[in-house]
Amino acid sequence: MYKHILLAADGSENALRAAKEAIKIASCNKEAVIEVIYVADFEKAKSEVLHSTSSEALNLERRQKISKIEQLLRESNISYKVKILHGTPGPEIVKYANEQQVELVVIGSRGLNGLQEMVLGSVSHKVMKRVNCPALIVK
Amino acid sequence: MQSLKQQWFGNVRGDILSGIVVALALIPEAIAFSIIAGVDPMVGLYASFTMAIIIAFAGGRPGMISAATGAMALVMVPLVRDYGLQYLFAATILTGIIQILFGVLKIAKLMKFIPNAVMIGFVNSLAILIFMAQVPHFIGISTMTYIFVGITLLLVYTLPRFIKAIPAPLIAIVVLTSIAIYSGVDLRTIGDLGSITQSLPSFLIPDVPFNFETLKIIFPFSISLAIVGLVESLLTSQIVDDMTGTESNKNREARGQGIANIVTGFFGGMAGCAMIGQSVINVKSGGRGRLSTLIAGLFLIFLIMVLGDLVVKIPMPVLVGIMIMVSVGTFDWSSFKYLVKAPRTDVIVMLTTVVIVVWTHDLSKGVITGVILSAIFFVVKIATVKIHQDNNRFIVEGQLFFASTDAFVDYFKSADIKDSSIQIDFSNSRIWDDSAVGALVKVEDLLREKGIQVEVIELDAPSKKIISKLQGMSSSH
């Protein structure tokens, strides 16, 4: 079964459901590692820096967005890593997944972005089209 | 931090491409900011060229773009209007000298003391002023002016959905300038407001009398420019730090800005600083290293030398449309949520900063007022001391220092104490300074006069230390 699973998270409910599915898959293999990645969006960089007191505070804020997922992973005894990337979410996830040659990408069907919900999660769509490994999109 | 070689040549392809994109995006802004400052477009273009080149070498944040900016242009308006261009060059050089001093004195560290509320106020008022500066160029001129502004806005906001490689403002300029020229519509152009010289900038010494009188004129402007330039540069460097997930040298950046401004002043440019918008464009376009900033400067001057004749034909309404986009992009739109969610005092600081800037047209005055106001709010906030009674024990809550001693003393003055001996519990408090020690002594004396025994308990180590230091000779009980 899959050993290196990438879980793309953005703090949304969908991402949490995706995490649960990723855990199910990872449970099949004792050596499996889930790598949780969170992409700090370039578009929001200015506003996030303006509204945070320091880079440490901003980092904490981002970590908090995936804290629920981390908790789930700890409870399920799955080994995991957390990585915060910077860029445009879709392409950045694809780039990272391909560079690291992960075996499976798990992602929620829709993220937090209200506007893009209408176009059915453009990030998951992009990821699905461009990663070199199987992708699991969780509803 | 990366090695110097890495900072220059770690990302050659990405840096060259992004540098070209930035140069293209810089031209309209450099021209528009010159018009805001009331100088010839060449002054802003030369400034953008020299700033970018020097910062590429001397800056502390690889990948950040510095050039002529709106924030700086707004500050220099009265200087240019009342004293002329030569005084602006002199002020630019002095700005650089002040910034180098700030860098040497490690002022960049003080940036930590500028609260978010002031920073948010800074970008918002900058956006408002850039927008206001456009108004005279499109309100009540002609119907065709409105139409061109409208089409420009339409293009700059829709094109990026389809064309990502070329900056939309540039496409809008090329398309609409061609349409304007061939259709012969009557529109004001950049040429009506100034001229373009197709040559490299040359060394000059500002033609001003070198005396105390001149210094008196330029010094207030230079101080304002130095502060505004560093605030925007250091904010920009934080944004670039975050986007690239790397760190930068803030003091080196302050020094670099100073060197760049000195050179800029001697080469006929206006004072500049780092640009949030352009730096974001650079990083998004793949720029990471110093090379990207250098290429941006070089390609900019190349374009001016080649295309100078065409630049003067750009219709003003197109430039106005682009600047409206710039002001919308500068504004922090999450401020509206901030107004509702942030602590009331932060909101007051933010709004005060905006009001002061819009009123004085000087961003430095807004920043200084905002910092002072938030410092006062901070003192008031931590100066609240509460005391509650638990039998004969009086528990002090809050920090005891010069601003909070009154409340402490007043409480014991008016308290109706029946016990013959009481304890004052400092487990949730700390004695900070001589005022606090004095207040404690005063309260002890006061109570002793009423015949009440006082025991001070639960002092932490720093409080004990300051008490024994200040009160060494007399033990209170």
Automatic annotation (TrEMBL), chain A:
Gene3D superfamilies: HUPs. Residues 1-139 form the UspA domain. It comes from the Bacteria. Coiled coil: none annotated. It holds the Pfam family Usp. CDD domains: USP-like. InterPro entries: Rossmann-like_a/b/a_fold, Universal_stress_UspA, UspA. Belongs to the universal stress protein A family. This is Universal stress protein. The lineage of its organism: Bacteria, Bacillati, Bacillota, Bacilli, Bacillales.
From TrEMBL, chain B:
CDD domains: STAS_SulP_like_sulfate_transporter. Residues 396-477 form the STAS domain. It is found in: Membrane. The keyword Cell division does not apply. One of its GO terms (molecular function) is secondary active sulfate transmembrane transporter activity. GO terms for cellular component: membrane. The chain crosses the membrane at residues 16-39, 45-75, 87-107, 113-131, 138-159, 165-185, 217-239, 259-277, 289-308, 314-333, 367-385. Keywords: Membrane, Transmembrane, Transmembrane helix. PANTHER family: SULFATE TRANSPORTER YBAR-RELATED. This is SulP family inorganic anion transporter.
